[in-house]
């Protein structure tokens, strides 16, 4: 069933989602379903910072399937702001034998999201892929699992006020991640890519661990999308790999990556729920086309 959050121009996004679900049900293969929906000349923003054609994006996905051959996907939510499709997903899989540094049979749960701009025919013209099944390898789940607050009737004005609060805090000198974590409601739930769910402190804790590997990390906002009580922020990160990132020791290389935040506001314009999708080590395993 499609969700009821609608706007006047959501028809292309809804058509794309319907075609995607039909393709998955027919082929039982997420990669094939997405590939079939790419428009000729369509582009994909992948998590090492590259913007690539479909054929290159497929190679990224095939590599993930080689590590997790039984990988499956569940759709947690989907919404359609401004003609786009924003789909939040959850991947499940287990590591096949013979992968360096990774224990065979290790079970993986990873959160991700996809933002797609479809054309009028329901094909993808541009897609931002924030799907990183390898995230739990670098940042294993700790088991944090906080309760999730229920929606309280907040609307678009609260989502915009929440984002403006992030900007005010950042412009006052607070780094952006602390600006975001400072707006998490006292009973708010922050979802990390490894399946952990906690309060604002887990977001700060994650980025503190990332900063151990990328001490000069910087973040730049690329795109902001509003949908009802939600705000979606797509961003670019970059930092010099001077410390460990999971199983990867320091390389001295500059590692670019892309990421996303999705927040659901409450009526106090706080982040009632916050999803974070980052891939600080993606460029280690799949270096960008233009070396940095």
Shape verdict: globular
- Helix fraction bin: 25-40%
Strand order of the largest sheet: 2-1-6-5-4-3
**What name does CATH use for the topology of the largest domain?**
Nuclear Transport Factor 2, Chain: A
Order of helices and strands: HHEEHEEEEHHHEEHEEEEH
Strand-pairing-aware structural class = alpha+beta
Please report the total strand number as a whole number.
Answer: 12
Tell me the β content.
25-35%
List the quaternary state of the chains: single chain
What's the Cα radius of gyration? 18 Å
Whole-number total of structural domains: 2
Give structural notes.
The protein is of the alpha+beta class and 292 residues long. It folds into two domains: 1-133, Nuclear Transport Factor 2, Chain: A, CATH 3.10.450.50; 137-284, Nuclear Transport Factor 2, Chain: A. It contains eight helices and twelve strands. The strands form two sheets. It has a six-stranded mixed β-sheet with strand order 2-1-6-5-4-3. It has a six-stranded mixed β-sheet with strand order 8-7-12-11-10-9. Strand 7 (184-191) and strand 8 (197-198) form a beta hairpin. It is globular.
In a few lines, what is going on in this structure?
The protein is α+β, with helices and mostly antiparallel strands and 292 residues long. Helices cover 28% and strands 34% of the residues. It is built from 8 helices and 12 strands.
Question: How are the secondary structure elements laid out?
Answer:
Layout: H1 11-27, H2 30-35, E1 38-45, E2 51-53, H3 54-67, E3 72-79, E4 85-94, E5 107-118, E6 124-130, H4 135-138, H5 156-171, H6 176-181, E7 184-191, E8 197-198, H7 200-213, E9 218-227, E10 230-240, E11 254-265, E12 271-277, H8 282-285
Parallel strand pairs: 1-6, 7-12
Antiparallel strand pairs: 1-2, 3-4, 4-5, 5-6, 7-8, 9-10, 10-11, 11-12
